[in-house]
Amino acid sequence: MAVDVFVANEQEECSVDLDRWAALARAVLEDRHVHGEVEVSLLFVDEPSIAALNEQFLGREGPTDVLSFPIEDEPLPGGRSPDSGGSGPGADAEDEPPTLLGDVVICPAAAARGAVEHEVALDDELALLVVHGLLHLLGMDHETDREAEAMERLERELLARHHRGGGSP
Fold first, then answer.
1. What are the extents of the domains in the chain?
2. Which of 16, 42, 109, 137 has the fewest CB atoms below 10 angstroms from its CB?
3. What pTM was computed for the model?
């Protein structure tokens, strides 16, 4: 089974190649040995939308470039409710529900400012944000210097393999 990456463009400020970013996300997840029936969402939103999410979930004001929302709950048990005593009508007992990895929300307008600040192309900044967001879904963080260094090193490796440095997309 392949990793399913759902993409949506909910902003109009910047052109976004959804197929390209879905392909990068799949390549990165496969590189990190994420296999099986796994679902991830990549959402491209405007500044007011990401600012609202930033405040609601992190308590920070204003827009940011990327937010990750890992699904941390255990999957619901199979079978009928309330007793989970067997398959319900039409259920296939052998089918496992897909693992919902989570959502990565990216603001291309904020990324465009970041690209200017970092002196890189918008395409490169968006690629970094896709990879960065996915690594958060996979449990990486940058709260300490050691964590930040490890995450940045892996971002560079993944971008070299799957963005400009040689791999697709």
1. 3-74+98-162
2. 109
3. 0.83
Q: Tell me the C-alpha distance between 136 and 64, whole Å.
A: 15
Is the bond preceding residue 97 a cis peptide, omega within 30 degrees? no
> What digits encode the pLDDT tens for the residues 93-149?
456 667 889 999 999 999 999 999 999 999 999 999 999 999 999 999 999 999 999
∠ at Cα 141 (133, 126), nearest 5°? 25
Spatial distance between the Cα atoms of 26 and 152, rounded to a whole number of angstroms? 19
Give the CA dihedral 118, 123, 129, 131, nearest 10 degrees.
-120
Q: Check: CATH 3.40.390.30 for 3-74+98-162?
A: yes
Query: Using a CB cutoff of 8 Å and minimum separation of 24, what contacts does 142-145 make?
Result: none
Please spell the DSSP secondary structure of the chain, one letter per residue: -PEEEEEEEE-SSS---HHHHHHHHHHHHHHTT--SSEEEEEEEE-HHHHHHHHHHHH---S--SEEEEE--SPPPP-SSTTT--S--TT--TTPPPPEEEEEEEE-HHHHHHHHHHHTS-HHHHHHHHHHHHHHHHTT---SSHHHHHHHHHHHHHHHHHHSSSSS--
Which sign does the torsion angle of CA 71, 98, 6, 157 carry?
A: positive
